[in-house]
Amino acid sequence: MKISEQWLREWVATKLEAGALAERLTLAGIEVAAVTPVAAPLKNVVVGEIVAIAPHPQADRLRVCQVKVGPKAPLTIVCGAANAAVGLKVPAALEGAVLPNGTEIRKATLRGVDSAGMLCSAVELGLAEDSSGLMVLPADSRPGTALERLLQLDDRTIEIELTPNRGDCLSIAGLAREVAALTAVRYTPVAIRPVAPKSKRTLAVTLSAQADCAAYAGRVIEGIDPQAATPLWLRERLRRSGVRSIHPVVDVTNYVMLELGQPMHAFDLARLDGDIRVRRAAAGERLTLLDGNALQLEASDLVIADRRAAVALAGIMGGQDSAVSDSTRDLFLESAWFRPETIGPRARHHGLHSDSSHRFERGVDPQQQRRALERATALIVAICGGRPGPVREARAAAQLPKRRPIALRAARLQRLLGMSLPATTVESILKRLGLRVARAGSKGEPAWKATPPAWRYDLAREVDLIEELVRVHGYDKVPVHRARMPMAMRPLPEGRVTEQRLRALLADRDYQEAITYSFVDPALQAQLHPEANGLALANPISAELAHMRLSLWPGLVQAALYNQNRQQSRVRLFEIGRRFRPRGKGGVDEQTVVSGLATGAAFAEQWGLAARPVDFYDVKGDLEALLALGGPGRFRLQPGVHPALHPGQTAEIVTGEGRAVGVLGVVHPDVQAKTGLDKSTILFEIELDPVQAAIIPEFREISRYPAVRRDLALIVDNQVPAQRVVDTIRCAAGGMLTNLELFDEYRGEGIDSGRKSLAVGLTFQDTSRTLNDEDVETVVGRVVAAVQAELGALLRQ
After folding, report:
1. φ/ψ bin of 750: left (φ > 0), alpha (ψ from -120 to 50), beta (otherwise)
2. How far is Cα 281 from Cα 284, in angstroms, rounded to an integer?
3. Is the pLDDT of residue 695 over 90?
């Protein structure tokens, strides 16, 4: 939110300079993001009155103006603006002036006519983003007056970044209350008096959704001047607050919203059909908003309606069909209170955010609707004329928020802050913040009952009051104490591998940890998981973050693309996080997984190894090291299939019980091209729980007897996985086998086509005796028989 410093000081006469004021607000939790001048210096720019105009003798589009800029003779200034007219008061930049766009004003000759300066538009002075001609100044402006003094351009804009709980500061009134409380100066609100009715015309107001709208005030204003213009002072205050001037009536409603924090809306009375009703929308009802957005309403939407249809989305935006326009002569002006819990969700559901919804969803003072209506009426009548009717007000007092007393104990204050505050200080601060305070404790143990004002939605508990006290008293005045807390050893179960250990291993193997969003791009996710439907968000942050992730791969691929686009050719990333998958009727399975990505060179550039791209087996080795942390033999990799991975270069990770818990593979070339990856990329993902489960070490005596090794070369079909050969041998060999090593694979001369030779080393040992040749040959014979029977293997001679 932006506000004018001068405007703020009209409400609270603090002696702090702008910088000190910004610092005091920031230290109290009201963050000031910037303090900037409202305009660039405008030296030698004064009020000029056009007293005569003549055609330019050499140019049809130019005119020669005689401009009075003081008591001396008028200056001759050549001007091309279409709205230049005799009697007009406009800014005149004289010789020596430098405009914000860098234009330096000198005496010049334009098509044979001497010109002593320049008549300026608001854009040329940096006071507007667009304009259609010269900037028109008030008719009572005195020629020769410096424009800076006339428009009070020695002002500064204070930009505030408020936390969502401080909606009470979204106005000049609210911020002035805050400054008054922080600096202990007087708060002087603007005087608002009721405007006497001059017309009898009214519209009845019915609250059909009292829980959502418990206060509504409105009045008719007839006969406004459609040719009226917003006065310069009001346009300037809106500009300094970042609000564009639109129409006098709309400008007044915006002005009152900035001044008092009460959003308002004006309807063209001629476009309303009958009385006003605040109700829930009918399912399928349609409404075209001011921004042109055509909505199909739902039963949970709150609307302002006439007898025929909805005319506004309550608390969010008005409707196009009933909007005020340049032809409007009669108005219906509304001021209402809407329940924050109703406005916020509906605005986000429709993807709308307006100044009104921003305030209503944070909470508006439920006691100021009539006051704001009277203020806006007075301004509209002063600017546009018109005959106001009587105020019609509907209130459901039982539905308005109640401010109940909060108990505050001095002992609790002492315990939380580590310091005590005098009772008089506590009471003074709370009263300056607008709370009603009463003593509630004994002299030995002070306590209070404090009732928050209507505008403070964020005060509900004792700790809230303590926060207010220390905030106003000053965080810098709180003494520093070393924290005291019990220290306890946390158990570290042997049967579980910690996440820190997993992270350390992957980091040791040259991976970098990534942390990515749980929200992902639906298009990218569909490329990586075409077989699954993602969970769509009801109110996404953006179209690129509209689904919950089915795996961690979309985030890792995005990170890889980000690096790739910045000339980082070698990328190795891992992440531990949650994935979200649909389950049953609207259910969601949340599962923590470990995912990784590798692309580019297998090793960092060096002289000791030849450069080559990372491949499936590089990442397989990294993954096997990770899986081995909990003990050997708990997992195995077997051929697998995944729609985003390359067939033949994809492995399924399964537990010893045969449950699939992960996948590893090379990204399919088609998917690689669609995602924009420029190199072969390997991905893996595995559930975290099985990886963390560890085999608890058990003592086993080392045999004192010698081991015997036998090597076998087995010829099997190419389609038989080596793992299956290993599993068959282990099963047949029994407990005497202490080690098995697959140390060679051969295809070629001497081996039939379609077959391969696998060489395995078998180590046998017993803990109670020395094995003889007969013992070993018996086991080897059993092994050979098993692989022949189950796998069709032959011993290679």
Report:
1. left
2. 8
3. no
Identity of the amino acid at 696: I
For the chain, the structural domain boundaries read 2-38+155-183, 45-150, 205-399, 413-453+460-477, 499-692, 708-795
Of the candidate ranges 197-206, 247-256, 479-488, the one whose mean pLDDT is the lowest: 479-488
Q: How many residues does the chain have?
A: 797
Residue 735 has pLDDT above 90, yes or no: no
The fold of the 413-453+460-477 domain, in CATH, is Phenylalanyl-tRNA Synthetase; Chain B, domain 1 (3.30.56)
Where does the pLDDT of residue 132 fall: very low under 50, low under 70, confident under 90, or very high at 90 and above?
A: confident
- Find how far residue 120's CA is from the centre of its chain: 41
532 near 520, Cβ under 8 Å? no
- Report whether 450 contacts 437 (CB < 8 A): yes
Cα separation, 56 vs 276, whole angstroms? 57
Residue 359 amino acid letter:
R
Cα gap 599→571, rounded to integer Å: 5
CA angle, residues 609, 611, 615, in degrees to nearest 5? 105
Are the beta carbons of 251 and 245 closer than 8 angstroms? yes
CATH number for the domain formed by residue range(s) 45-150: 2.40.50.140
The mean per-residue pLDDT over the stretch 589-615 comes to 92
Residues facing 559 on adjacent strands:
none
Q: List phi, psi (to 5°) of 13.
A: -90, 60
3-state secondary structure of 420: coil
Helix, strand, coil % over all residues of the chain, rounded to 5: 30, 30, 45
Name the CATH topology of 205-399. Answer: Phenylalanyl-tRNA Synthetase; Chain B, domain 3 (3.50.40)
On whether the CB atoms of residues 603 and 518 are closer than 8 A, the answer is no
Residue 484 has pLDDT above 80, yes or no: no
CA-based Rg of the chain, rounded to a whole angstrom? 39
Greatest extent of the chain over all pairs of C-alpha atoms, in Å: 130
Determine the 3-state secondary structure of 589 from DSSP.
strand
Residue with tokens 């004006």: 266
What is the pTM for the complete model shown? 0.70
* Phi and psi torsions of 263, nearest 5°: -65, 145
Q: How confident is the model at residue 540 (pLDDT cuts 50, 70, 90)?
A: confident
Position 748 confidence tier, pLDDT thresholds 50, 70, 90: confident
**In the prediction, which pLDDT does 644 show?**
94
pLDDT at 444 exceeding the cut of 80: no
Task: Supply φ then ψ for residue 169, to 5 degrees.
Answer: -95, 10
Q: What is the pLDDT of residue 443?
A: 66
Angle between helices 410-417 and 423-432 (to 10 degrees): 90
Candidates 262, 69, 230; CA nearest to 136 is 230
Q: Which long-range contacts (CB under 8 A, 24 or more apart) does 728-732 make?
A: 728/786, 728/787, 728/790, 728/791, 729/760, 729/762, 729/783, 729/786, 729/787, 731/786, 732/782, 732/783, 732/785, 732/786, 732/787
Closest CA to 184 of 12, 29, 22, 5: 12
- In angstroms, the first-to-last Cα distance of the chain is 87
Tokens coding 189:
């609100």
Residue 392: its pLDDT value, please? 95
CA distance 620 to 638: 12
State residue 309's pLDDT score.
93
Average pLDDT of the chain, as a whole number: 92
**The tokens of 677 are what?**
């990856």
Structure letter (DSSP) for residue 377: H
Instruction: Count the Cβ atoms, other than its own, within 10 Å of residue 316.
Output: 26
Dump pLDDT digits (tens) for 279-330: 999 988 999 999 899 999 999 999 999 999 999 999 999 999 999 999 999 9
| Interacting residues of 698 by C-beta distance below 8 A, sequence separation 6+ | none
Residue for token pair 């994935």: 579
Q: In this structure, how many other beta carbons lie within 10 angstroms of the beta carbon of residue 307?
A: 10
